[in-house]
Amino acid sequence: MNNIHNWQEWIGTDEAGKGDYFGPLVVAGVYVNAKCREEFLEKGISDGKEVSIPRIQKLAAWMWEHYEQHIVVVQKMPAEYNSFYEFLKKRGQNLNTMLAKLHVEVIQTLANRMGAKHALVDKFASNDVITPQLTEQGIKVKQETKAERDIAVAAASVIARDAFLRGIESLSQEYDLRLPRGAYQVTEAGKEFIKLHGADALRNVAKLHFRLTKVVLT
Q: Which of 141, 146, 183, 142 is nearest to 49 (CA)?
């Protein structure tokens, strides 16, 4: 797996659920050092968006079992996500602001726990959105496109995807309706949800700022 730095220990972060209409937004971070780097490579850990669901679940379970202290997950279930998004929008901010806050929280938590001074983030916005807050604390941050080629970010992507899958599954069970992943072919499920639970409850399972909401509500 290609590296884009020469750090000996570092944190990688990635998110899941950003483009999914139903389910939570998840940001995960994984701390990597020389020991676990080799084990992660041997396990074949790679970008969670390109791995089958059973393999994601298997890899995530293994990481949690062997490296729990190396992992931090922060998630916003839809009800909290929508409230936070509405709050940010009133202040002229957007989803990137929310993502930045979650990535910073994950990195700070792991840095405090493990003593890491470097972090690699899968790029989602300009550097000034996330870097200044962490630089003040002595943490060097790099944002890179397609950062999942780095083993720490790849591990974080697996953890984030697994948490998202568990989140959307828990909502499906709670509301007794299979909520599909992604942002396509979700209209039918949205309309069925409203029929069963009412339009007001949609904010508990879906990201309301998606344009799909207007379609679902008509």
A: 146
Q: How far apart are CA 22 and CA 4, in angstroms?
A: 33
Do residues 162 and 56 touch, judged by C-beta distance below 8 A? yes
In sequence order, which ranges of 28-176 are alpha helices (DSSP H)? 34-43, 53-67, 78-90, 95-114, 131-135, 151-174
Q: What is the pLDDT of residues 83-124, one digit of tens each?
A: 999 999 999 999 999 999 999 999 999 999 999 999 999 888
Residue 11 per-residue DSSP state:
E
Q: What is the pTM of this model?
A: 0.94
Q: Which CATH number fits domain 10-173: 3.10.310.50, 3.30.420.10, 3.30.450.20, 3.30.1120.10?
A: 3.30.420.10
